[in-house]
Design a protein that fits this description.
Length: 631
C-alpha cells in the first residue's frame, strides 16, 4: 500500500473512509450516521451506533473462539510476579467486578475514579466500568491526595477503586491513606471505596465506606455488557493545561474503538494474536489506548509491566521482557531509553537477550532526541519510530504508518501526518506557513474519530483552549514545522506545559504552590532541558523584602510543598532566589527568555522588556548555581 494514496483517501472522503474502518468492529447497532455535529457544532462520529468497549476488548474474541488466548501478561519485577490471564479469565473477573459495582448502586452514566498501581486489577476495573456504561477516570498513582481531590470534585465519582499499595523502586507507597486524605479534602464524597488488598504489608486504615475488592468480585454475579451510544463517554482523563486546574479530556466509545483498531493495524502494524507492549502507566493516555483498549480490541496479548526501565532490578529489564514474552511491537518514552543508555552505554545487557521477536520500537511522550535514536539504532536492529500525539488525540497524529508503508526515517521528525489528520503550520495570525517555517501546529476540523469530545463539565474551556485561536482548526499547543517533503518536526510546547520524563505537567500549577509560600513575593516556574528527563522544572523566586530565610530552608520547604500537593512526579528540586524577574512593560514575566538563559541557548531580548539591565543580573546569579545538584 502507498502512504500518499492512503492519506489522500482518508481526507478526500472522510465518511466513506471511516465507515469502512468502523466495519472492522462488531457493533450492537452499526452506525448509519457517520459524521454529524453536536449541539455546539462540534463534529461527532458514528452518533447513532451502539457498542460497548468491554465487549470489543473481551467478549467478541471469546465468541470468535479465542477465549484461551493470553490477553494480559502481568510482569512485575518489583514483586517478582509473573501471571498470565486468558481472555476467558479476564472476562470472568471483569464481569463479576462489574456485577459487584452494579450491586454497589453504580449504573450507566455514573462515574468512578480508579487510583491504582500497574496491576491487572487496574485494567479489570477500567473494563468493568466500561462493561456497565460507567465512565471511568483513572488517576496516575504518582499524584498526591490534593490532585486526586481536584479530580474527585470535578468528575464526582460514586466510587473510588484503589489498591493497598504501589511500589516505587525503593519503597512501598500505601495508597489507601492517600485516598482517604483526598476524600477528606474533596467537597464531593464518593459513596464507596473498593480496596484491593495486595497483602504487601501496607497500612490500610479502615473507613465505613470501604469495600473489599476480592469479596466484591467473588460474591457477585457476572454482569452482561450494557450497550452504549457511540458518543457515550468511555472515560475522562485529566491532563495538565495552562492553569492550575487540570482538564478532564472526554473520550467517546465508538469513535475511539474504531480509531484504536485502525491504529493497531495501520500505525503499529500489529497482527491479532501477537504480543504488544506499551511500557507506560494506566494513569496516562498511553496506558488507556495501548496497554488496555487498543491491544485488547485488536486481540493482541498486552504486557502490563510494573517496574521501571532501570533499577528493577537493572537496565536489562526491558530486554528480558521483550525476549521472555515474545514481544513483536513495543512502545516506550525516549526518557526510558536515555535512562537505560546511561546505565548501560555499550548495550552489554542487550547482547544477553534474543530480541529477534521484536519488529518495531515506537517512541513517544516527548521529543525524541537524535542521540537517543542513534544509540537505539546502533544496538538494536529494528526501526525506532518516533510518533507524536497527546492525551487529547487519544492516538497518534504524526507517525510512520508501519502497517501502510514505512517511509524513510528522518531523525528529529516523527514523520508525516497520520491518515485522518490534516496538519498545518500557522503563524500567530492564522496564516498557513510554508515549508521549514516554524509556527503553531494545528489540525483542520473535523478531527478523525477517537479524539477528544469535550472537557468534562467545561465546554467553554474546551472551546477557548482548542478551537477559538484558529477558527475551523484544532490548536495542539505545540510548535513545529513541516519540511519540503511534508515531514513534520515538533519543536516543543508553546504554552506553560512541560514534559518531565514523559509526564505532562503544568508549570502554572507549580507556580501557584510556590507563590503560596509565605516568604515568596513572586516567582516563575520554567521547564529547562535535562539530559535524562527531557525537561525538569526550575523555580525562580523573589523573596518578600525583609524576609530572613536561608536559601536551603526555602528550597526544602518549596520542594516539600510541591511533592505534597502535586506529587513526587513533579520532580521540582531546584529553587533559585533572584532579586527580580524579567518582565514586559505590561508586567508579564518573560518565561521564554528565562528558559533560554538557563539552557544557554541563543536569545534575543524582546523589545517589550521593561528593564534590560536585569539580564546580566540573572545571568550572574545563574552562573553560580548548579541546577540539578540540590537532590
Ligand atoms: N507512584 C508514586 N510515586 C511515583 C510514581 C507512582 N506511580 N511514579 C513516579 N513516582 C515518584 C518517583 O518515585 C520519584 O520520586 P523521588 O523524587 O522521591 O525519587 C518521582 O516520582 C519522579 O519519578 P520519575 O519521573 O519516574 O523519575 P525516576 O528518577 O524515578 O525514574 C525514569 C526516571 C526515566 C526511569 C522514569 O521516569 C521512567 O521510566 N520514565 C518513563 C516514563 C513513561 O513511560 N511515561 C509515560 C509516557 S509514554
Ligand atoms: P500527553 O498529553 O501527556 O501525551 O503529552 C502530549 C505532549 O507531549 C504533546 O503536546 C507534545 O508536546 C509532547 N509529545 C508527545 N509525543 C511527542 C513526540 N513524539 N515528539 C515531540 N513531542 C511529543
Amino acid at each position: 500500500m502507498n502512504y500518499n494514496e492512503f492519506y489522500q483517501e482518508s481526507l478526500g472522503n472522510k465518511e466513506a473512509f471511516w465507515k469502512k474502518q468502523s466495519n472492522e468492529l462488531p457493533w450492537f447497532t452499526p452506525p448509519n450516521t457517520i459524521l454529524s455535529e453536536d449541539a455546539n457544532g462540534y463534529p461527532l462520529w458514528f452518533a447513532d451506533g451502539e457498542t460497548n468497549a468491554c465487549y470489543l476488548a473481551l467478549d467478541q474474541h471469546i465468541e470468535a473462539g479465542y477465549g484461551d488466548q493470553v490477553a494480559i501478561i502481568y510482569d512485575s519485577p518489583v514483586t517478582q510476579t509473573l501471571k498470565k490471564y486468558s481472555f476467558n479469565e479476564v472476562k470472568s473477573e471483569v464481569s463479576r467486578l462489574a456485577g459487584g459495582l452494579l450491586a454497589l448502586g453504580l449504573k450507566k452514566g455514573d462515574t468512578a475514579v480508579i487510583y491504582m498501581p500497574m496491576i491487572p486489577q487496574a485494567a479489570f476495573a477500567m473494563l468493568a466500568c466500561a462493561r456497565i456504561g460507567v465512565t471511568h477516570s483513572v488517576v496516575f498513582g504518582g499524584f498526591a491526595p490534593h490532585e486526586l481531590a481536584i479530580r474527585i470534585d470535578d468528575c464526582k465519582p460514586r466510587v473510588v477503586i484503589t489498591a493497598s499499595s504501589g511500589i516505587e523502586i525503593d519503597r512501598l507507597i500505601a495508597y489507601k491513606p492517600l485516598v482517604d486524605e483526598a476524600i477528606e479534602l474533596a467537597d464531593h464524597k464518593p459513596k464507596k471505596v473498593v480496596v484491593l488488598n495486595r497483602k504487601l504489608g501496607a497500612r490500610i486504615p479502615f473507613k465505613k465506606y470501604d469495600v473489599d475488592y476480592d469479596a466484591l468480585v467473588y460474591g457477585s454475579e457476572e454482569a452482561a455488557c450494557v450497550p452504549v451510544n457511540a458518543t457515550h463517554p468511555l472515560y475522562v482523563l485529566y491532563t495538565s493545561g495552562t492553569t492550575g486546574k487540570p482538564k478532564g479530556i472526554v473520550r467517546d466509545t465508538g469513535g475511539y474503538a474504531t480509531a484504536l483498531k485502525f491504529s493497531m493495524k495501520y500505525i503499529y502494524g500489529a497482527q491479532p494474536g501477537e504480543v504488544f507492549w506499551a511500557a507506560s502507566d494506566v494513569g496516562w493516555v498511553v496506558g488507556h489506548s495501548y496497554i488496555v483498549y487498543g491491544p485488547l480490541i485488536n486481540r493482541n496479548t498486552t504486557v502490563l509491566f510494573e517496574g521501571k526501565p532501570i533499577r528493577t532490578p537493572d537496565a536489562s529489564t526491558f530486554w528480558r521482557v521483550i525476549s521472555e514474552h515474545n514481544v513483536s511491537v513495543m512502545f516506550t518514552a525516549p526518557t526510558a531509553i536515555r535512562a537505560i543508555k546511561k546505565e548501560d552505554p555499550n548495550g552489554e545487557f542487550i547482547k544477553q537477550y534474543d530480541l529477534s521477536c521484536l519488529r518495531t520500537q515506537f517512541l513517544a511522550g516527548e521529543r525524541c532526541d537524535v542521540a537517543t535514536l542513534e544509540w537505539y539504532n546502533e544496538h538494536i536492529p529494528v526501526p525506532a519510530i518516533d510518533h507524536w500525539w497527546q492525551t487529547e488525540s487519544g492516538w497518534p497524529m504524526i507517525s510512520n504508518m508501519m502497517g501502510v508503508e514505512q517511509l524513510p526515517i528522518k531523525p528529529g521528525s516523527a514523520s508525516k501526518a497520520v491518515a485522518g489528520y490534516d496538519i498545518r503550520i500557522f503563524s500567530e495570525n492564522g496564516e498557513e506557513l510554508g515549508p521549514n517555517e516554524e509556527g503553531y501546529v494545528v489540525i483542520k476540523l473535523p478531527l478523525p474519530p477517537g479524539t477528544l469530545l469535550d472537557i468534562w463539565n467545561d465546554n467553554p474551556r474546551f472551546k477557548a483552549g482548542y478551537l477559538t485561536k484558529f477558527p475551523g482548526y484544532y490548536f495542539s499547543g505545540d510548535g513545529g514545522f513541516k519540511d519540503d517533503e511534508g515531514y513534520l518536526f515538533i519543536t516543543g510546547r508553546v504554552d506553560d506545559v512541560i514534559n518531565v520524563a514523559g509526564h505532562r505537567l503544568s508549570t502554572a500549577e507549580m507556580e501557584e504552590i510556590v507563590a503560596a509560600h509565605h516568604s515568596v513575593a513572586e516567582c516563575a516556574v520554567i521547564g529547562i532541558n535535562d539530559d535524562l528527563k527531557g525537561q525538569i522544572p526550575l523555580a525562580l523566586v523573589v523573596t518578600k523584602s525583609g524576609e530572613e530565610i536561608e536559601h536551603f530552608q526555602l528550597q526544602h520547604e518549596i520542594v516539600q510543598k510541591v511533592r505534597e500537593q502535586i506529587g513526587a512526579v513533579a520532580s521540582l528540586k531546584d529553587v533559585i532566589v533572584v532579586q527580580r524577574l524579567p518582565k514586559t512593560r505590561s508586567g508579564k514575566i518573560l518565561r521564554k527568555l528565562l528558559r533560554s538563559i538557563v539552557d544557554g541557548a541563543d536569545y534575543q531580548i524582546p523589545s517589550t522588556i521593561d528593564d534590560e539591565a536585569i539580564i546580566p543580573e540573572i545571568e550572574e546569579v545563574l552562573s553560580h548555581c548548579k541546577i540539578g545538584s540540590f537532590k
